[in-house]
Amino acid sequence: MLEQVAEIIRHAQRGVVLTGAGMSAESGVPTFRGNEGLWAKFRPEDLATMDAFIANSKLVWEWYKWRRDLIRQVKPNPGHYALAELARWIPDFTLVTQNVDGLHRLAGSERVLEIHGNILKNKCIACDRAIELDDEIDPKQIPACPHCGGKIRPDVVWFGEMLPEETIQEAFEAAERADIFLSVGTSALVHPAATLPVVAKRHGAILVEINPDETPLTGLADFNFAAKSGELLPELVEMLSRVGKTE
Ligand code: APR
């Protein structure tokens, strides 16, 4: 089965990979919905929403500070490096990630569409400007925006918020023209991200899913690998290197 996917990639001109929290699981970043998931302790509605932030900014910042401290200690895993390598095999390659941990860039992926933002960045809740801060935010003393005095928040997309328009538009355009679309390490439950593989499939792409668990995509995919991304992706790239690209 993996040989077939490698063969398709060898002939592919346009490819898209969508990644979710499972991509970073082997780096030690807990997923959201697995039983060890971040949400196991919290409910999304309690923390990752504007209402939650207005109601209790300190609690929301405590959670993001805990996640930031964790993410600063983790490293990309072999799956991240394999995706950076995979980009070399497909002329028009787009990497779309729901992850906010920045690990794809750290692993060398150049063009990464961070459709849910980046947890290490800050912005003002009122004027929406990006805010550079020298040191970490203290949840007990949330700084005010130097431009308008509004509260500073993490620059990530919260539930019920719009995704960065250009970024998600670019992701859908890539999905529509893809020859092959890989959905890796995502539960495919949160939209519009989870709509991307469906759009790709509808426009004729071969759909490949890499996830130890079943998801709503599993029945739709042409190929399913019940495997860890950190193990399967390096195997796929190694197979490509063995045989080389077919022009
Ligand atoms: N390799 C591949 N997949 C894995 C691995 C692994 N090593 N470990 C776990 N998984 C799978 C799980 O089976 C699960 O289906 O990764 C998926 C992670 O799903 P979620 O925790 O729901 O994460 P994600 O799909 O990225 O969530 C989407 O929801 O909370 C919001 O904004 C948040 O971006 C997030 C979005």
Key descriptive features of the protein:
247 residues; alpha/beta; Rossmann fold; SIR2/SIRT2 'Small Domain'; six-stranded parallel beta sheet; three-stranded antiparallel beta sheet; 9 strands; elongated; binds adenosine-5-diphosphoribose
Q: Detail the poorly predicted runs.
A: none
Can you list the ligands bound to this structure?
Answer: adenosine-5-diphosphoribose
Major pleated sheet: 6 strands, parallel
How much is the average pLDDT? Answer: 93
| Proportion of residues in extended strands | 15-25%
**E-strand count:** 9
CATH level 4 superfamily of the largest domain:
TPP-binding domain
Major sheet: arrangement of strands: 3-2-1-7-8-9
What would CATH call the architecture of the largest domain? 3-Layer(aba) Sandwich
Total domain count: 2
Rg result: 19 Å
Apparent shape: elongated
CATH topology label of the largest domain:
Rossmann fold
Distance between the termini: 22 Å
The CATH class label of the largest domain is: Alpha Beta
The SSE order reads HEHHHHHHEHEEEEHEHEEH
The helix fraction, in percent, is 25-40%
